[in-house]
Write a structure and sequence with these properties.
Layout lengths: L2 H8 L2 H10 L1 H8 L4 E3 L11 H11 L3 E4 L12 H9 L4 E8 L21 H15 L3 E6 L5 H21 L2 E5 L13 H8 L5 E5 H6 L4 H7 L6 E4 L1 E2 L6 E2 L8 H6 L1 H4 L3 E4 L7 H15 L2
Parallel strand pairs: 1-2, 1-10, 2-3, 3-4, 4-5, 5-6, 6-7, 7-10
Antiparallel strand pairs: 8-9
Helix pairs in contact: 5-6, 6-7, 7-8
Length: 297
């Protein structure tokens, strides 16, 4: 789809305004219980029709978006301001954006799709990434992945994150760090996540991925207790009982009722539903928000 087509479709505000007046998304805002979706869930699909997918996401009742890299340049083929406008026209707030901390090294068996735009990193591109996030009006800039393969790399990564955190503060943004399960495993005598909690400046927040925490054999609530109020954003996704296959929220083994009961301890602002490489992304996020509505009354 050409850029001008995006802009043309984004300009049709009459229907969007009607949607804003009647949507369940507006009711969620009023009730103080927003729920977002991480758009990586739709990687490889959303690029085909960005306006159409955002419309469907808004109609499901989602209120917020967290963006990530895609197969289109920029922000799903748009500038930060254009993407923000398109989100708002579908009753959605662009709340958070994922970036890489250091160059991504694919694990064995994983290949980067061809013709991907350059994947910028906080190590090499902090000023422009921060400036673009500020232009789009997001609240959180999130480091999605960073090198923790050795104790020295953990130390270097902490330096990168602290430097980025300072730049974010100047721009009115909040930097956060997103975990996988590797951060909870000892690396040359240090546990990266413990190092991050103790050595990142306190205003750098954590985006706790509830599924990866559970796969690591840990209790999210116990992690909240280590640093109360430092977990304003979560990734909400589920695992099967073998912790091999990701599931829609509520269809696996994670005790979300217990975790959400401790939202105030965590300092929760917004949970983002995510499902990495799902068989059917739209069915997954629909099932996930349907479940979350039953436990977040």
């Amino acid at each position: 789809m050409k850029r001008r087509t995006f802009i043309h479709r984004a300009a049709g505000t009459a229907g969007a305004l009607a949607f804003l007046n009647t949507s369940w998304a507006k009711q969620l805002h009023a009730a103080g219980q927003p729920v977002g979706v991480q758009l990586f869930t739709l990687f490889g699909q959303i690029e085909k029709d960005v306006p159409g997918y955002l419309k469907k996401i808004g109609e499901m009742g989602y209120t917020d978006l967290e963006s990530a890299f895609s197969r289109l340049p920029g922000y799903y083929g748009l500038s930060p301001k254009e993407f923000k406008a398109l989100a708002e026209q579908n009753g959605l707030r662009w709340k958070s954006h994922h970036v890489l901390g250091t160059p991504f090294v694919p694990p064995p068996g994983v290949t980067i799709p061809p013709n991907m735009p350059k994947m910028r990193t906080l190590k090499d591109n902090t000023p422009e990434l921060v400036a673009e996030a500020a232009e789009g009006g997001v609240k959180y800039l999130v480091c999605a992945n960073i090198n923790i393969s050795s104790a020295d790399n953990v130390k270097s990564s902490i330096e990168i994150l602290n430097k980025t955190g300072e730049e974010c503060r100047k721009a009115g943004l909040i930097l956060a760090y997103h975990n996988h399960d590797a951060e909870f495993k000892s690396v040359e005598g240090v546990v990266p996540y413990d190092e991050f909690l103790s050595k990142l400046t306190p205003d750098i927040k954590m985006e706790l991925d509830l599924a990866w925490v559970s796969k690591a054999g840990l209790d999210a609530v116990e992690i909240f207790k280590k640093a109360p109020g430092r977990f304003p954003i979560w990734h909400v996704k589920d695992f099967d009982k073998e912790f091999k296959t990701l599931m829609p929220v509520g269809q696996g083994v994670i005790d979300f009722k217990k975790i959400f009961a401790n939202a105030s301890l965590a300092g929760l602002d917004i949970p983002f539903v995510e499902h990495d490489n799902p068989p059917n992304a739209m069915e997954s996020i629909q099932a996930s928000i349907t479940y979350l509505k039953t436990i977040r009354k």
